[in-house]
């Protein structure tokens, strides 16, 4: 707990830390807990018991909001932390529930799409040793700084394109699951009620690409882009 304000001044610096609190001991006093409703996994409303308290946490030397959560049915306990002292307890619980979906999306972006697998090298950029620190760009020429900014911009564009591609895959999975499964005959579990993952959608797109190129008319803008890119690839390989 934060230290209580002293009624009269004394020697030394005023105390900062008050009574030491064991967080799990707070679960014993059920009278402090409130019951609220949050949107749980699967979009279902779930009732939960919670208790919010602001305490000084020594590792960060500041006040942190602790949200104690207890499932009234199973008795499972969980403690959430936040440095936002204005954050409502139920909002903190809802954000934690969404965390799993966010992490799964990052996993798909990294391993399936390669959103963060960018490698853009800049010849003009001076090589530095690992652990030697950052470069002092303000001491470089304007031409050098502009080149570095273009490199960073390429990173941002690469990530943005990957996120857009992932959004399209999720759209196809949500709106056209049956058509996606039609191009994925190797799957054993292709129930119509379940939505395919981004990996399944990407495999279906690969399987559908030859048919798309063969059947689509020449007026398709996407076909023109793919054919031009394939032609440039062949020219580059023959020249090498």
Give a brief description.
This protein is α+β, with helices and mostly antiparallel strands and 240 residues long.
Structure, explained:
With 240 residues, the protein is of the alpha+beta class. The protein folds into two domains: 23-108, no CATH class; 109-125 and 135-239, no CATH class. Helices cover 42% and strands 14% of the residues. The chain contains five helices and four strands, in the order ββββααααα. It has helices spanning 89-113, 142-175, 177-182, 198-215, 221-239, and strands at 34-39, 45-57, 62-70, 77-82. Strands 1-2-3-4 form a four-stranded antiparallel β-sheet. A hairpin with a 6-residue loop joins strand 3 (62-70) and strand 4 (77-82). The longest helix is centred in the middle third of the chain and has 34 residues, at 142-175. The radius of gyration is 28 Å and the shape is flat. The model has no long low-confidence stretch (mean pLDDT 83).
């Amino acid at each position: 707990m934060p230290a209580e304000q002293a009624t009269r001044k004394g020697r030394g610096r005023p105390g900062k830390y008050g009574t030491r609190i064991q967080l799990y001991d707070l679960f014993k006093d059920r009278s402090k807990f409130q019951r609220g409703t949050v949107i749980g996994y699967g979009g279902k409303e779930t009732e939960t018991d919670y208790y919010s308290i602001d305490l000084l946490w020594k590792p960060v030397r500041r006040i942190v909001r602790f949200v104690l959560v207890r499932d009234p049915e199973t008795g499972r306990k969980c403690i959430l932390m936040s440095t936002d002292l204005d954050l409502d307890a139920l909002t903190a619980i809802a954000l934690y529930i969404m965390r799993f979906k966010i992490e799964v999306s990052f996993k798909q972006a990294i391993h399936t799409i390669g959103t963060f697998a960018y490698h853009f090298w800049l010849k003009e950029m001076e090589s530095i040793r690992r652990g030697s620190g950052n470069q002092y760009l303000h001491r470089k020429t304007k031409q050098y700084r502009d080149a570095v900014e273009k490199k960073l911009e390429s990173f941002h564009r690469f990530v943005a394109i990957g996120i857009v591609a992932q959004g399209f895959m999720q759209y196809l999975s949500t709106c056209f699951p049956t058509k996606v499964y039609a191009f994925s005959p190797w799957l054993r579990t292709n129930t119509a009620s379940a939505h395919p993952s981004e990996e399944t959608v990407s495999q279906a797109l690969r399987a559908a690409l030859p048919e798309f190129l063969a059947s689509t008319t020449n007026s398709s803008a996407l076909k023109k882009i793919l054919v031009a890119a394939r032609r440039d690839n062949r020219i580059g390989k023959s020249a090498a």
